[in-house]
Write a structure and sequence with these properties.
This protein has about 350 residues and is of the alpha+beta class. The protein contains nine helices and 13 strands.
C-alpha cells in the first residue's frame, strides 16, 4: 500500500476518547511484552512511517507525520521517538497515551544509549519498511542480534480484531462519504484541487482524524500534485483514498473522472482476479496474507484496462463473504468468489 507523504502535519489525530481507550492500548502493550518474554527478549523496537505504521498505530495510536517514529519497548518501560524538533513534542504527545515522548536525535545514537545494558537479542517490528541506512544503524546498535517479531504481532492483532469492529464501522462510514464526495465532485467538473479539498472537508465533518489521498495517471506512477490553478480532471484518474476514524484506518481504490459506463458495468460484473489483502487497523498492513475470518481488501482488475483498479472491503467472518464497502460508481452488492491467490 503506497500512500503519499505530507508536507505538514494535518488532521485531529489526538488519542480518541471514544472507541479504543488507554486501557485497551495498555493491554496490547502487555500482549507484546508476553511475546518478548516467550522469545527471551527484553528490548523491542516498533518502527513506523507515513506508509507503513500498522503495528505502531495498534500499539500506541501513533501515526508518524513528518518522518519515521520508533516505539521503544522494554519489559518495564516505553518510549516514543518521533521525527521532528523538540518544539513539536506537545503535538506528538497528544497522539498517544505514552508519557515518555521525545524528538529523534538519530536512531543509532538513541538505540545504543537505550540498549546499553541489554545482553539479549533485540526484537524488531516493521523492519521491512525501514530505510536501509536506518536498518543498518539499528543492526549496529544491536550488534547484529535482531529477532523479527512481525508474525507474532500479527497473531496478537488478529486475536484482538473482534474489539475493533465498532471502530471499523465508524471508519467505513467516513470512507463512504469521502469517496462519494470525491467521485461526485469529479463528475460535476470540479478541478483536482477543488475536488480534493471538498472531499477533505466532508471527511473531517464526518469525524475523520486524518485523510490521505494518492492520485496518479498510472497505478505505480508519480502522484499527481494539486496545482494552484484550477486544473480539471480530464481523464480517468486512479485514486487511493485512506481515512482514519476512531483510531482505525480504512482505504479503498477507485477511478474518478470520465469513466465509460461499459467499464463500470464490466467491473461490477467481473469476479475479482487478485488476492484478498489483509486489512487491519492501519494503512500499510496490506502486504500480509489474508486470513479467513478477517476483514479484507479485494482488488478488481480488468485485464485490458491495467490502469483501472477498484477495490472492495469484504467481511470474510461469515460463511458467505459480505461486501462492507464498494467504490462509488460500481453498482454491485455480491460476487462469486474464486479462491484467493497471492500475488
Amino acid at each position: 500500500m503506497m500512500m503519499p507523504s505530507i508536507a505538514l502535519p494535518t488532521g485531529p489525530y489526538d488519542l480518541p476518547s471514544a472507541g479504543v481507550g488507554r486501557a485497551q492500548f495498555e493491554q496490547r502493550i502487555e500482549a507484546l511484552r508476553a511475546i518478548m518474554t516467550a522469545r527471551g527478549i527484553t528490548h523491542c523496537v516498533v518502527h513506523g512511517n507515513g506508509f507503513d505504521h500498522a503495528g505502531l498505530s495498534w500499539l500506541a495510536n501513533f501515526t508518524p507525520k513528518l518522518g519515521p517514529a520508533w516505539l521503544l519497548v522494554t519489559l518495564e518501560g516505553l518510549r516514543m521517538l518521533f521525527a521532528g524538533g523538540p518544539g513539536m513534542k506537545p503535538s506528538a504527545q497528544r497522539l498517544t497515551f505514552i508519557e515518555d515522548v521525545a524528538a529523534l536525535r538519530g536512531i543509532e545514537k538513541d538505540a545504543q544509549q537505550w540498549l546499553a545494558q541489554n545482553h539479549a537479542p533485540l526484537g524488531l517490528i516493521a523492519g521491512r519498511a525501514m530505510l536501509r541506512r536506518d536498518w543498518l544503524a539499528v543492526e549496529r546498535a544491536a550488534q547484529g542480534r535482531i529477532v523479527m517479531l512481525d508474525e507474532d504481532l500479527q497473531e496478537a492483532m488478529a486475536a484482538d480484531e473482534q474489539s475493533g469492529h465498532a471502530a471499523l464501522d465508524a471508519s467505513l462510514a467516513v470512507l463512504r462519504i469521502a469517496a462519494q464526495t470525491l467521485y461526485d465532485q469529479a463528475r460535476a467538473g470540479a478541478s483536482q484541487r477543488e475536488a480534493v479539498l471538498t472531499m477533505e472537508r466532508a471527511a473531517y465533518g464526518t469525524g475523520a482524524q486524518d485523510v490521505r489521498i494518492r492520485m496518479a495517471r498510472r497505478v505505480w506512477g508519480a502522484p499527481v500534485t494539486l496545482p494552484d490553478e484550477d486544473t480539471p480532471i480530464t481523464g480517468p484518474l486512479p485514486v487511493v483514498l485512506a481515512v482514519r476514524s476512531a483510531a482505525r484506518w480504512t482505504w479503498g481504490r477507485f477511478v474518478i473522472g470520465p469513466v465509460g459506463r461499459d467499464l463500470l458495468e464490466r467491473a461490477g460484473a467481473t469476479r475479482p482476479d487478485a488476492e484478498l489483502l489483509a486489512m487491519d487497523n492501519a494503512v500499510g498492513v496490506g502486504d500480509a496474507p489474508a486470513r479467513e475470518g478477517a476483514v479484507a481488501q479485494a482488488l478488481i482488475r480488468l485485464a485490458d484496462e491495467p490502469q483501472a483498479i477498484w477495490s472492495l472491503i469484504v467481511d470474510t467472518r461469515e460463511h458467505e463473504r459480505r461486501i462492507l464497502w464498494s467504490p462509488p460508481g460500481l453498482s454491485t452488492t455480491s460476487y462469486e468468489w474464486a479462491s484467493p491467490r497471492i500475488e
